[in-house]
Amino acid sequence: MKVIGADVVVTSPTRNFVTLKLTTDEGLTGLGDATLNGRELAAAAYLREHVAPLLVGRDPGRIEDTWQYLYRGAYWRRGPVTMAAIAAVDMALWDIKGKAAGMPVYQLLGGASRDGLLAYGHASGMSFESLDESIHMHLERGYRAIRVQSAIPGVRAVYGVAAQAQATGERYDYEPAGRGAAPVEEDWDTAAYLRHIPKVFEHVRQQFGAELPLLHDGHHRLRPIEAAKLGRSLEPYDLFWLEDCTPAESQQALRLVRRHTVTPLAIGEVFNAVWDFQQLISEQLIDYVRAAATHFGGITPLRKLMDYAAQYQIRSGFHGPTDVSPVGLAAQLHVGLAIHNFGIQEYMPHSDLTDEVFRQSMRFAGGYLHPGETPGLGVELDEQLAARLPYKPAYLPVSRLHDGTMHDW
Ligand code: EZ4
Ligand code: CO
């Protein structure tokens, strides 16, 4: 078999997605996700200009070799644009291999290690009352684990408290990026946040009991000693995890956090290679790996990462926001089903229009996700509909302290 076509589709059904479609001389096709929120066209150009011409004529069966060719062969390694592009190729090749074998990709990875993947949803509120409503809505939809974000008194805009659509449970794709020529500006106050969040979790435990798994995302906003303080102050509320408590590219900073708290830690949604995790895993500074197949070079390196993490009893918590396309989500569902050290899967449903552009075999029932039994990844792209929904600039917000200093968003 040979690759005879490599096409890049940029489409915007309520938000932007970058998809690679490989076609073979035997008529099989494969899809891969290279969506990089706010930098979509850079990933698309990297694929179109520098990768697609190299794929035509190659044997699609040689997944590892093609991955190494694109990673080592570029000389300029790593980085989110490069690794998203390589991820798209890797996923598309696994999709083709699954279709050729007549098997869903998880079967090629060793078969299912469980019946379904425990998923968590995003609840948020401007007040305790609206937060409770949002949690109830998620429980009614079947979620058995909930990420809790809340407005902070004195902070106008807060990460994780999105448009009305999120609180009301409407299927949405916008959060947290907003369409427009430039990012919106938000404000931030770490001290106010550290005072308020323990009260939020005290309230939620009172309302919803001790058993519901609760998660929280700090979104890279804290310094190590602040993260340590937050982790310790949340211990009475028994979190499933505290996510991205510091900007963890400084891996040794997590030693300080770890010394002070037993709140489990999850990190890595912005990481793109095993090296970003090396110290965090080998020193057991985290409990959950937050990588996304889309931003980590695809299925091949994600599987290797999880086998490395398994030696340290570290589990998966793959990044599943709406800016990972249905193709990228499918890729990590297949990995999550196959590995032994699965932990939990983030799941934000895409909009109805996105689900029309990307038809999926994936299902969500009773709080669990399953990639389905369709050969390959189980996603089909409606190219006619995609073509009618062109790219529109959209950016994540930026964040400033009250004195105007730029902060991490
Ligand atoms: O803000 O994916 O845990 N989930 C997150 C996401 C990120 C977006 C950034 O593109 O932190 O919602
Ligand atoms: Co996050």
- Which word captures the global form? globular
Task: Please report the number of helical segments.
Answer: 14
- Rounded radius of gyration (Å): 20 Å
CATH class of the largest domain: Alpha Beta
End-to-end separation in angstroms reads 45 Å
The molecules bound to the chains, other than polymers, are:
(2S,3R,4R)-2,3,4,5-tetrahydroxy-N-oxo-pentanamide, cobalt (II) ion
> Which homologous superfamily in CATH is the superfamily of the largest domain?
Enolase-like C-terminal domain
Helical content class? 25-40%
- Please tell me the overall pLDDT: 95
Tell me what the CATH architecture of the largest domain is: Alpha-Beta Barrel
Tell me the domain tally.
2
Q: What is the structural class?
A: alpha/beta
* Total number of beta strands: 20
Beta-strand content estimate: 15-25%
Runs in which pLDDT lies below 50 for 5 or more consecutive residues are: none
CATH-defined topology of the largest domain: TIM Barrel
Largest sheet: 10 strands, mixed
Describe the structure.
The chain has 14 helices and 20 strands. With 409 residues, the protein is of the alpha/beta class. The longest helix has 22 residues, at 80-101. α2 packs antiparallel against α3. It is globular, with a radius of gyration of 20 Å. The mean pLDDT is 95. β1 (3-11) and β2 (17-24) form a beta hairpin. Strands 4, 5, 8, 9, 10, 11, 12, 13, 15 and 16 form a ten-stranded mixed β-sheet that branches. It has two domains: 3-104, Enolase-like, N-terminal domain (Enolase-like, domain 1, 2-Layer Sandwich), CATH 3.30.390; 117-407, TIM Barrel. It binds (2S,3R,4R)-2,3,4,5-tetrahydroxy-N-oxo-pentanamide and cobalt (II) ion. (2S,3R,4R)-2,3,4,5-tetrahydroxy-N-oxo-pentanamide binds next to loops. Cobalt (II) ion is lined by residues 217, 219, 243-244, 269.
